[in-house]
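Lab notebook, bench 4. Continuing the backlog of folding jobs that were queued last week. Each job is logged with the same field layout so the records can be merged later without manual cleanup. Today's entry covers glutathione dehydrogenase (ascorbate), a 222-residue chain. Filled in by technician R.K.

JOB TYPE: sequence-to-structure
TARGET: glutathione dehydrogenase (ascorbate)
LENGTH: 222
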Amino acid sequence: MASASGEGSKPVLTAYVKGDPATSTLGDCPFCHRVLLTLREKAIPHDLQYIAFDNKPDWLLDVNPSGTVPVIKHGDAWVPDSGAIVAYLEEKFPEPSMVAPAEMAEVGGSVFGSFRAFALPGDADPAEAEAKWLGEMGDLDKVLKATEGPFLGGDRFNSVDVMLLPRLYHAFTVLKHFKGWELPEEYGTVAAYFGEAKGRDSWKATDYGEEMILKGWAPKFA
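JOB STATUS: finished
OUTPUT FIELD FOLLOWS
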């Protein structure tokens, strides 16, 4: 267990995330990353418990039959699923607000699926998969150019950002290493968006590193 936020403050909840409990090393889960960024941005004092995917404890299936993480425990409440957790945290800890502008609610929702289809095309047409992925990057670039700040909806880091950015992290890392693909210069606004996020204290405190991402994805390319 490791105290993860609110230096000197008593933890008010526990977050269960992918990682190595023996070494307290954070794993490469973008959904856990989404929750951890939210906890950090809201400065919610919390403890971390690491769950090894190859040795999940029995109690996890009791509180979350799907057996997935992240899961949080707040008082007597157990909350699974990253989207549900972020919504719960916004309700229980409304300041600072991370509610995204309504017009941004659907932005990036299909990015991870398009990335996976491009990285692991299977029986799909690789050219079509790449074109769809590039279309996602083009759409995101246009949205970002229309905002008044570096993030989706302006200068305030919000719930859509913490959903999308960890997925982009996996996508950019995996595609560069396994496919030799890098974001074209014409989508420089997307690159700047990602770079701005990586500079935040919340990101630095929750970054598991590219090596961990590649280790997690390597079996899919074996």
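OBSERVATION: The mean pLDDT is 95.
SIGNED: R.K.
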